[in-house]
Design a protein that fits this description.
With about 240 residues, the protein is an all-beta fold. It has no helices and 22 strands. It has 2 domains: about 120 residues, Jelly Rolls, CATH 2.60.120.10; about 100 residues, Jelly Rolls, CATH 2.60.120. A hairpin with a 4-residue loop joins strand 7 and strand 8. It is globular and about 45 Å long. It comes from Echinicola arenosa.
């Protein structure tokens, strides 16, 4: 088994006033040659957008883009004609493929919106752009790792063009779980702790810490306090 630890305070940070963003991997003006990606996981941004502000229309191509709201309401518009609002409990995906333009704004004028912006390098280039979103049953996250993303449209959660699986868990203190990789011969897992304190294979993680693990078939999680965790299994090459 191999692993890498990224403590929360070592992330890149950019505060633009309207946007306060922490970057686990190199992004925009933050560049660290040792932190470009974890396998096919290219971007993990922890964003907070001020009331009424947001990202104006901008293009993407050949990237799988996943948004996970944590607090507040995020309004999405895109060049495919989609206009929607996503909030805590929703998961959004865009396959940028041959090209897409979109904007993201804080729907509310009185409170910030917080969300994770995640980019996955796709297994197929120049696909037809697509958009999808789902609403989770929050109770399904209780003391288990619930699948929220996979490579298959017929599986649980949303799907993307990559051999990747995401799981979310909301764990009470003392809960121990085993995660078995879906594709252990090719994939690794990046664990991002949203809240609380976890022990992963003996390594303690605190709020917003990240840890990548590969060359293993499974990993052990133990919640040291009430914790919310995101597991992202992705190909390593």
């Amino acid at each position: 088994m191999k692993s890498i630890l990224h403590k929360a305070l070592t992330r890149g940070h950019a505060n633009h006033g309207w946007l306060d963003s922490h970057h686990t991997f190199s992004f925009a003006n933050y560049y660290d040659p040792e932190r470009i990606h974890f396998g096919m996981l290219r971007v993990l941004n922890d964003d907070q957008v001020a009331p009424g502000m947001g990202f104006g229309a901008h293009p993407h191509e050949n990237m799988e883009i996943i948004s996970i709201p944590l607090e507040g309401d995020l309004e999405h518009r895109d060049s495919m004609g989609n206009t929607t609002v996503i909030k805590e409990g929703d998961i959004q995906v865009m396959s940028a493929g041959t090209g897409i333009t979109h904007s993201e704004y804080n729907k509310n004028k009185d409170k910030a919106v917080k969300f994770l912006q995640i980019w996955i390098i796709p297994s197929k280039r120049n696909v037809k752009p697509r958009y999808d979103q789902i609403t989770l049953d929050i109770s399904s996250l209780k003391n288990r790792l619930a699948q929220i993303l996979s490579p298959s449209a017929n599986d649980e959660g949303i799907w993307i063009h990559q051999n990747a699986w995401f799981h979310l868990g909301d764990l009470e203190s003392g809960i121990s779980l085993t995660y078995s990789l879906k594709s252990p011969e090719n994939n690794g897992v990046y664990i991002f702790l949203l809240e609380g304190q976890l022990e992963i294979n003996g390594q303690e993680l605190s709020r917003r810490d990240g840890m990548g693990i590969w060359d293993t078939k499974s990993l052990e999680l133990k919640a040291l306090n009430k914790s919310k965790v995101l597991l992202m299994e992705v190909p390593m090459g």
